[in-house]
Structures are given as C-alpha cells and as structure tokens.
Amino acid sequence: MKNIAASLDALRQRIRAAERRYGRQPESVRLLAVSKTRGTEEVRTAAGHGQTDFGENYVREAVAKIDECGGQSLIWHFIGPIQSNKTRQIAEHFDWVHSLDRERIAGRLDAARPAEKGPLNVCLQVNTSGEASKSGAPPEAVHDLAETVAGLPNLRLRGLMTLPAPATDLEEQRRPFRQLRRLLEELQARGYDLDTLSMGTTGDMEAAIAEGATIVRIGTALFGVRRKE
Ligand SMILES: *Cc1c(COP(=O)(O)O)cnc(C)c1O
C-alpha cells in the first residue's frame, strides 16, 4: 500500500502549485479521491488525513464501502458509467453524480432520489474526444440535457465533467478542458447557475487546473497503480 498520508500531502501541494502557476484563486480546486478498487481501510486512512470527497465507479463495490464508512460524514461521488438498473442505488447512496449523459437516466435518478436527502448534485459528462471515447454526451446535446436536468426537482445541476482520451503534451491536454470550460460559460450566459468543472486526473490535472477545473479526480497519484478493474 502506498503511504496515503504522504501522497495526500504531495497532491495538495501539487494542486496549490498549479493554482498559483495559472493564476487561480487559492483553494479553488477541490480534490476528489478516486477510491474505486480500493478497500475501506484505504478510504478510512485518507479520511483520517482530512480527505472528505471520494469517487467511485462501480455501484455494488461502492455501496458496500459507503455502508462500512457510515457515520464518518464523507461525501460520495459517482463517476462511472450509469446503467439504468443501478439508478436507484446511485440516487439513494451518493451525494454527487458526475457522469450523467442521457435524459432517460436523469429522469430515473430524479424519481429515485429520497426526498429527505435533498437534491442530488449533478454534472453532465461531455464527450470532448469525439470518436476516441464512448462516454459522455456529444457537446451539441448538452444544452437540451441541461434544460431537462434543470427542470427536475430532485436533481441540482452543478456543472460539467469530462474524461478526455489520454495525451502527453500539455497543449494537447488543455484543448478538451478548454472546450468544456467554454461550454460551461455558454450555459452560464444562458442563465444557469453553475459552479463546477470536474476535469483532470493523475496524468493531466495541471492542464485541467490551467483551464479552470474546480474538482480534480485523482486515483493513481493517491492510492498507487490499480491492480484490477
Ligand atoms: C479512474 C478514474 C479517475 C482517476 O484516474 P487516475 O488516473 O487514477 O487518477 C478519474 N476519473 C474517472 C472518471 C475515472 O474513472
């Protein structure tokens, strides 16, 4: 197991350094710890060092972990592909969903959200890589999807998310993130009250912060290389 406390400190420094380098407000970027395939102990260790937000991709694995960590007031984000037969469990157990990309799934999440939990925070996932990726709504579908989600009482539209095809060159990495930021700005100009750009992983978080990320989703740099998925 990686030394999670040391990795967390290093990551926080990396985020603060990128905020300074790209003229972002201090502490304007939030770290989402991606804990898919990781055990409850690793989540607890990170939580013990001040990490509050955790991201999961697989519903069954996540629900067990969330139950085991009950009472720790952690914030759970669903970031994986959403199967329609899993919408109830997602709506009941999570605080955020980053990967909403279809109207039908939006309706199902809204219908299944327990009233006492308050609205589910939602980011629309956008496919900024064209043919290279299957997940996410095409950019031209985002306005209609936003309108649908904004009309659902048990969902709260917070912003946009993307997971671009990997690239090594900083300029190439920045391009899809810039596209996502511009889409967010378009929606804001149409009157949507949005505050979230969920973008950037271990390999491209500096590029994402340069383009305005407010949440970076980090697994490998925190917990080490995943053995299985
Ligand atoms: C796994 C995953 C991450 C984390 O990626 P790392 O390269 O391990 O930091 C971020 N976002 C999504 C949607 C993921 O599935």
Bound molecules: pyridoxal-5'-phosphate
Shape descriptor? globular
- What is the helix tally? 9
Overall residue-averaged pLDDT value = 96
Strand residues, percent: 15-25%
The helicity comes to: 40-55%
Secondary structural class: alpha/beta
Order of helices and strands: HEHEHEHEHEHEHEHEH
| Rg value | 17 Å
Total number of β-strand segments? Answer: 8
Strands side by side in the biggest sheet: 7-6-5-4-3-2-1-8
Largest sheet features: 8 strands, parallel
pLDDT below 50 for ≥5 consecutive residues: which ranges?
none
Distance between the termini: 17 Å
Molecular structure report:
The chain has 229 residues and is α/β, with parallel strands linked by helices. It has nine helices and eight strands. The protein has helices at residues 4-21, 40-48, 59-68, 87-93, 103-112, 142-150, 170-189, 205-210, 220-223; strands at residues 30-34, 53-56, 75-78, 96-100, 120-125, 155-161, 196-198, 215-218. Strands 7-6-5-4-3-2-1-8 form an eight-stranded parallel beta sheet. Helix 7 (170-189) links the parallel strand 6 and strand 7 (196-198). Helix 4 crosses helix 5 (103-112). The two termini are 17 Å apart. 42% of the residues are buried. The model has no long low-confidence stretch (mean pLDDT 96). The structure holds pyridoxal-5'-phosphate. Pyridoxal-5'-phosphate binds at residues 34, 36, 57, 79, 163, 201-203, 217-221.
Summary tags:
eight-stranded parallel β-sheet; binds pyridoxal-5'-phosphate; 8 strands; 229 residues; 41% helix; alpha/beta
Strand-helix topology:
Blueprint: H1 4-21, E1 30-34, H2 40-48, E2 53-56, H3 59-68, E3 75-78, H4 87-93, E4 96-100, H5 103-112, E5 120-125, H6 142-150, E6 155-161, H7 170-189, E7 196-198, H8 205-210, E8 215-218, H9 220-223
Parallel strand pairs: 1-2, 1-8, 2-3, 3-4, 4-5, 5-6, 6-7
Helix pairs in contact: 4-5
Bound molecules: pyridoxal-5'-phosphate.
